[in-house]
Design goal:
It contains 22 helices and 16 strands. With 495 residues, the chain is α/β, with parallel strands linked by helices. It has a domain of 250 residues: Rossmann fold (3-Layer(aba) Sandwich), CATH 3.40.50. It has a six-stranded mixed sheet, with helices on both faces.
Length: 495
């Protein structure tokens, strides 16, 4: 039986999984959600012996029901191959008393690779299934990691073009170099004068622009998204939480049925929402600990039930979390509103018009799976330094936010369940912040000059992604004001 998807803002718009992947965003600006969260049809005992690829099929076949077994296995096996530097794809590492799920072993050394390695295959397969003849233009806003992972995934994929917008000065130097050196005849990168929220809002406005849509259709183009608003990004992320639990079981770190807590460094809310979906599928997860940096809009929301983006935007050492509008939260709001699109649409309109909304006490009660926490810049530095001194393990700034919040939650709550930390980026990606946290003597060094030193102290190999950018040419020079993004898209496409 086909699992259909509908818009969070309109129950009448129902599409298949492949149509949802293809569209990216619903016509009314809502996000596509499955009509229900399917249950796993394999036991944990069966899962614990499976490879990452087999686990991916067991999870994704439940969501993407109009893809054939052959199509889905082709997408999975094409994505999770030798471009990952470890056969297990997502290693589990015990660090002190927590388990780090390392999601950064892909081509661009961040967790976005886990979904963006497979999205081009899901999308091009969906295009064939739905007889699409137009060229698909992938339009994406990035706070640093999605951009490079999407560019790498879609580079020179036939029938596609990709345009990525990022906030100038709002990403690490390594992140910027990874994007502006990207090869591929169909790739474009644009630095906007503004922050990530400006970029994300600009992309959403372009998607909702009906006149532009008609103009592009006449020119032979149609839009889709590689942001986590695309269900084709979210579903692959559910996989690694299922996989991690099965591996903890296989390694006899937990007993069958034992609940674990999961801590996720959170910006756009997609990664932690995937953990919530894994719990709904039947994975024994206790608390979902939502870790924020000093842009703690989500922490405040879970504390008060009020989502308020009217605040100072703070640039931190964990830039992928420097977000005040967490787009994927809309999927959770829709769920706790009893899948009522009218209530959700009203709240999203309030967010757009006034920058704030408040959920009802009844809706708040349905958020009991979640706990909010936040880490200051000092907490983050201290966690990196202390963990390195005690264990020799080096983590990036985003993972440090999660590790800090996880430790604080354990201390405050007395909850002694074992905890899985989503380790979302390689320390090489935020090398200057990581190295100065370990020792301030590195403060004046150039980022790329610190690469060999990090390799030495962490006893890890320098990732290929870093080796490549050391000598790569700058290929992308586009810049524009945030309000001129539409014109920039037309200019790039020659419309």
């Amino acid at each position: 039986m086909n699992l259909l998807y509908n818009s969070t803002r309109n129950a009448e718009e129902k599409v298949t999984a492949s149509e949802a992947v293809l569209k990216g965003l619903a016509g009314d600006g809502g996000l596509f959600v499955p009509e229900y969260i399917p249950k796993l049809d394999v036991t944990m005992d069966e899962l614990k012996g499976m490879s990452y690829q087999d686990t991916a099929y067991a999870v994704m076949k439940q969501f993407l029901t109009d893809y054939t077994e052959e199509e889905l296995k082709y997408c999975i096996n094409s994505a999770y191959d030798e471009k990952f530097d470890t056969e297990v794809i997502a290693p589990l590492v015990k660090v002190g008393d927590t388990y780090h799920l390392e999601l950064f072993h892909g081509a661009t050394i961040a967790f976005k690779d886990m979904a963006l390695s497979i999205l081009p295959y899901l999308l091009t397969t969906a295009a064939k299934k739905n007889n699409v003849t137009k060229e698909i233009v992938i339009l994406t806003a990035t706070s640093g990691d999605t951009g490079k992972a999407a560019l790498a995934g879609f580079a020179d994929v036939p029938g596609t073009k990709i345009i990525v917008f990022y906030p100038k000065g709002g990403v690490s130097r390594i992140q910027e170099l990874q994007m502006v050196t990207q090869k591929g005849e169909n790739t474009s990168v644009v630095a906007i004068h503004g922050n990530f929220d400006n970029a994300q809002s600009g992309v959403k406005e372009i998607f909702e622009d009906k006149e532009l849509k008609e103009e592009l259709e006449k020119a032979g183009y149609q839009f889709s998204s590689a942001n986590s608003i695309n269900i084709g990004r979210l579903v692959p992320q559910v996989v690694y939480y299922v996989y991690a639990y099965a591996k903890l079981l296989e390694n006899e770190e937990i007993v069958p049925g034992e609940e674990i807590n999961v801590t996720v460094p959170t910006g756009n809310f997609g990664n932690i929402l995937a953990a919530y979906y894994a719990k709904q599928m039947g994975v024994p997860i206790g608390k979902l600990i939502c870790a924020s940096n000093e842009n703690k809009v989500l922490f405040d929301f879970f504390q008060t039930g009020v989502y308020d983006r009217n605040r100072e935007f703070i640039l931190t050492s964990s830039p992928s979390m420097d977000i005040l509008i967490s787009s994927n939260l809309e999927r959770l709001i829709y769920t706790v509103a009893g899948q009522n699109p009218e209530i959700n649409a009203r709240l999203m309109a309030q967010l757009k018009d006034r920058g704030v909304y408040e959920i009802t006490p009844e809706m708040r009660e349905k958020l009991e799976d979640f706990v909010g926490g936040f880490a200051t810049e000092e907490d983050c530095r201290e966690t990196i330094r202390r963990t390195y001194e005690r264990t020799g393990y080096v983590m990036d700034t985003h993972t440090a936010v999660a590790a800090s919040v996880c430790a604080q939650y354990k201390k405050d709550s007395g909850d002694d369940r074992k905890c899985l930390v989503a380790s979302t980026a390689s320390p090489y990606k935020f090398i200057h912040s990581v190295m100065t946290a370990i020792d301030e003597k590195y403060g004046s060094a150039d980022e790329l000059a610190l690469v060999d030193e990090l390799s030495r102290i962490s006893q890890t190999d320098i990732p290929d992604a870093i080796k490549e950018i050391r000598s790569a040419d700058i290929r992308h020079h586009h810049e524009c004001d945030a309000q001129c993004m539409k014109e920039k898209v037309k200019e790039i496409l020659g419309v």
